[in-house]
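Quick one: Photosystem I assembly protein Ycf3 from Methylomusa anaerophila, C-alpha cells please.
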Amino acid sequence: MKSSSGKITVIASIVLLAVLLVSLQGCNPRTGSETESSSQPLPPAPNTDTDPVKAAESEEFFAQGLNLYEQYNYREAVANFDKAIAANPANFKVYTAKGIALCYEGDYRGGLALIQKTLAMNPGYVPAFYDMAMAYKLQNNYDKSLYWFEKTIQGDPNNTWSYYGIATIYADRGNTQESLKYLKKAIELDQAVKAVAQQQSHFAQMRNMPEFQALVR
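--- reply ---
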C-alpha cells in the first residue's frame, strides 16, 4: 500500500506539470497576450548606450555641417556630416542633411538613399520631408516634389519655404493662380520671401502681372 500510494503521488505530479506547460503555450511571457508561436524571437532592445561625449561631438559636427551647407559649401558640409555619423551613428538628423547636400552635388541616388535612411529611423522627422521635396525638385520630378512639400506642410503648417517651393513649381508650369496663392502664403509667413521672389527666374513670366507686383512690393 505504501508503494502504491507513492506511485500515485508521482503520477499526479507529472500530470499537473503537463497541464501547467500546456496552459503556458502560445502566451507571450512579457505581455500575456496570445501569439502564433511561443518560439517567436523577442525584438532587440533599443540602443540606449550612446556615449554622451560622442553624442555631443556628433551634434557639434552636425551644426558645423549645416553652417557650411547654408554657405553652399556642400563638399565640406558632407565631410562634417561624415564626422557626425562616425561619432554617433544613431544621430538620425545627419543622414538627411548629408543626403540633400549630396543631391546638390549631383549624387541623387546616394542622396535620396540617405534621406530615406533618416525616415526609416524617424518616420515623422519633418526636415527630411522637406529634403525629399528638394531632392525631387532638383531632378525636375515635380509631382513627387509637390507631394513631399505638401507632406512637410502637414507636419509643419508654418513651413515658409515649402509654400514657396510649391509656388515656384506652379510658376514653372505656367499655373499662375496656384503659384500666386502659395507665394502669398509664403510672404505672409516671412516678408523676406519678397526679395527672393523678385530675383528668381521662376517668376520671370509673372513679373509684369499686377497681382505679382502687389505681393512683392
